[in-house]
Design brief:
Elements lengths: L1 E6 L5 E5 L4 H10 L6 E5 L5 H12 L3 E5 L2 E5 L7 E2 L1 H4 L9 H8 L1 E5 L12 H9 L3 E5 L2 E5 L16 E3 L5 H11 L5 E5 L5 H12 L3 E3 L6 E4 L8 E3 L4 H13 L3 E5 L7 H9 L3 E5 L2 E5 L9 E2 L11 H9 L4 E5 L9 H7 L3 E5 L2 E5 L8 E3 L3 H13 L3 E5 L2 H4 L5 H7 L3 E6 L1
Parallel strand pairs: 2-15, 3-14, 6-7, 10-11, 18-19, 22-23
Antiparallel strand pairs: 1-23, 1-24, 3-5, 4-5, 7-9, 8-9, 11-13, 12-13, 15-17, 16-17, 19-21, 20-21
Helix pairs in contact: 1-2, 1-7, 4-6, 5-6, 6-7, 8-10, 8-12, 10-12, 11-12
The protein binds uridine-diphosphate-2(N-acetylglucosaminyl) butyric acid.
Uridine-diphosphate-2(N-acetylglucosaminyl) butyric acid binds next to helix 1, helix 5, helix 6 and helix 12.
Length: 426
């Protein structure tokens, strides 16, 4: 296992290119199951999670060639409908194969993901939406067994039928699964309170290129008219808005000057707004964003929300920034109430953070001090790296396999920006 060793206190400066978005690539890869044949997905980030999805698809029988960032997925050879525990337990997003398998084969057997580092994270909405489409769901030995058998004599397809479904709370993953099942269901589905995160919008657009009928893309009301078959297609993964914003925070927290390129500035509006509120100067130039620090950041209050609100996936990183800000910041996570494992680790570096329920109160300190730290999830680990970049002395972030799940070439990209960073065995 590797750790990341950072010598902090040096302003980041320069330019770094954003990778394709993990959370867009994963559902796109799952969607290839819907149409037998060869799909081409470009700008796929090389991450532990995309590698896990490769293994899930291979377990289902797909043939995959992944050359640099171009992935060719041939799903004509798929025959298994089982996503095994060993893979699903390492990545919850494996549950994205549920909808496509059910729609294509009328059957799916997908391990239940179980809990996660910051709480229970249920999949009840995924299951309810499949039931609404007419599937029968059972839990058998830790597996979700979903069935909607095709007509007698047919080897493919399902008995799924259009439905009206209103999500009681917005769910990125459950919206994705429902979309992927409904595109091959018989008749019309109307989905209310659908997630509108850019990653889901891209999934819907990809399904349309494959031949699906979907109205209302990009809004919370989707109308889907099922089709009999879909065709393989080609898609470029959208840029990773969370990776992009993380590097911008790197600029702000080190009082530096950072440009990110090949990003989609419109997807980052909430993060940019928060960074500006904390004193950074933001300049957008086409697909590039430059952050110039305005000196020590100012405190700000932040509350996470569904898109286009402030992303929960940026909450930890902004807490690292708040830890050195002038004043008191109040940071509330309304999406995941327990997502604060970074707070006690930041405190080990000198941060003053008090968490009560889902609200963290951060009294900014003028400096942080390097320390050995570790986190139990991806974004918490990113927050510790950011704090380490700003801190005096050496910070060792261990368990960096969490970072490998979501940040492509993190150490190399940080080094490009002038960080003193080294990846070494623990
Ligand atoms: N929820 C339920 N039941 C469900 C599904 C969700 O109660 O069946 C709740 C969750 O517990 C949470 C809320 O609904 O309170 C929203 O969860 P959502 O389903 O939107 O999350 P997700 O699809 O499991 C994706 C991202 C996460 C990101 C969240 C929120 C992927 C692969 N994962 O998860 O990304 O935090 O949306 O935006 O897209 C990350 O990249 O670090 C990460 C965790």
């Amino acid at each position: 296992m590797d750790c990341l060793v950072l010598q902090g206190g040096r302003p980041l400066s320069g330019s770094v290119e954003v990778s394709g978005a993990k959370n867009a690539a994963l559902p796109l890869m799952a969607a290839t199951l819907l149409a037998p044949g060869e799909h081409v997905i470009t700008r796929v980030p090389r991450l532990a999670d995309t590698q896990t999805m490769v293994r899930v698809l291979e377990a289902l029988g797909a043939k995959i060639h992944w050359d640099a960032t171009t992935m060719r997925i041939d799903t004509s050879t798929c025959s298994s409908v089982e996503a095994p525990y060993d893979l699903v337990k390492t990545m919850r997003a494996s549950v994205y194969v549920l909808g496509p398998l059910l729609a294509r084969f009328g059957r799916a057997r997908v391990s239940l993901p179980g809990g996660c580092a910051w709480g229970p994270r249920p999949v009840d909405l995924h299951l309810k939406s499949m039931e609404a489409l007419g599937a029968t769901i059972e839990i058998d030995e830790g597996y979700i067994v979903a069935t909607a058998p095709p007509a007698v004599g047919a080897t493919q397809g399902s008995s799924l039928r259009g439905t009206r479904f209103t999500f009681p709370i917005s769910s990125v993953g459950a919206t994705g699964n429902l979309l992927m099942a409904a595109v091959l269901a018989r008749g019309i589905s109307v989905v209310e309170n659908a997630a509108i995160e850019p990653e889901i919008t891209q999934l819907a657009e990809y399904l349309v290129v494959m031949g699906a009928n979907i109205e209302g893309i990009g809004t919370t009301r989707l109308e889907i008219e099922g089709v009999d078959t879909l065709s393989p297609a080609r898609v470029e993964v959208i840029p990773d808005r969370i990776e992009a914003a993380t590097y911008l925070v790197g600029g702000a927290i080190t009082l530096g000057d950072v440009t990110i390129t090949r990003c989609q500035p419109g997807h980052l509006a909430a993060s940019l707004g928060a960074l500006e509120a904390m004193g950074s100067k933001i300049t957008i130039n086409g697909l590039a964003i430059t952050l110039q620090s305005g000196g020590r950041p100012r405190a700000a209050d932040i509350a996470t929300a569904v898109y286009p609100g402030f992303a929960t996936d940026m909450q930890a990183q902004m807490m690292a920034l708040a830890a050195i800000a002038d004043g008191v910041s109040v940071i509330t996570d309304t999406i995941y109430h327990d997502r604060f494992s970074h707070a006690p680790e930041l405190a080990r570096m000198g941060a003053d953070i008090r968490v009560v329920d889902n609200v963290a109160t951060v009294h900014g300190r003028t400096r942080l001090k390097g320390a050995p730290v570790m986190a139990t999830d991806l974004r918490a680990s990113a927050a510790l790296v950011l704090a380490g970049l700003a801190a005096e002395g050496e910070t060792v972030v261990s368990r960096i396999y969490h970072l490998d799940r979501g940040y492509e070439n993190l150490a190399a990209k940080l080094a490009t920006l002038g960080a003193r960073v080294e990846r070494r065995p623990e």
